[in-house]
Holin-like protein (Rubrivivax gelatinosus), 137 residues
Amino acid sequence: MDLALDWHGTTVALRRRWRRSRVAQLGAIGAVWAAGELIVRSTGLPLPGGLVGMALLLLLLATGAVRVASWRRGASWLIAEMLLFFVPAVLAVLDHPELFGWLGLKLLVVIAGGTLAVMAATALAVECMLRRGVAQP
């Protein structure tokens, strides 16, 4: 009787289960965010923990430590339900009537201008990378 474990089959099954579990992927995204918060609090960096966590995730993806497919379901759910995350912010704006006047209009112009600048910079960067042949559509 052979009692040897099939490690390859086990890891394949675990990877398959991981890629199907949206909850586990959301937990991993939360863990990376928490790691970013921990880094910021322990080092005193003047950056948001979410930004450091995003950089940490980018580093993990760039080094090949994790694959995009391992995060796809959780990230897709977050993007699909993004509107829910803006409801509290919209309700908070209702508590500030000064934002519905001249100040609000100025803020709206700044936000729109910033959004257009980011979109233009992203389009130029993608166009440049496509022309060089670095990225493929």
Summary: The chain is about 75% helix and 0% strand. The chain has a mean pLDDT of 86. The chain has two domains: 1-80, 86-137.
